[in-house]
Write a structure and sequence with these properties.
The chain is mainly α and 94 residues long. The protein has one domain. Helix content is 78%, strand content 0%. Helix 1 packs antiparallel against helix 2 and helix 2 runs antiparallel to helix 3.
């Protein structure tokens, strides 16, 4: 049941990130660098939620097939979070 909460929170973060793409429709003369920074920031938060959720709900059986998929989610999340973090730094440089 705990994993469902993390999945919902992960989807909410991606929804906010997608909503930031349309922020210029609601706020006139928004700085596009700020908008890109917000999109990348919420993308980074979504990956962090995925990593925390996978670590928190990690199966305890040593030789479980589920455990392999959780390792995959954790490592994929780390790689994507690092990529998003680098993108956030590049956005702030501009």
């Amino acid at each position: 049941m705990k994993i469902i909460q993390y999945i919902i929170l992960y989807n909410i973060m991606w929804g906010i990130s997608i909503a930031m793409c349309y922020l210029h429709c609601f706020i006139n003369d928004i700085n596009y660098t700020l908008q890109d920074c917000l999109i990348t920031f919420f993308e980074l938060l979504a990956w962090i939620v995925l990593i925390i959720g996978a670590i928190d709900t990690f199966p305890q059986n040593k030789y479980s097939n589920k455990r392999v998929w959780f390792y995959y989610a954790i490592m994929g999340g780390f790689i994507s979070a690092i990529h998003s973090f680098i993108g956030l730094i590049n956005t702030l440089k501009i």
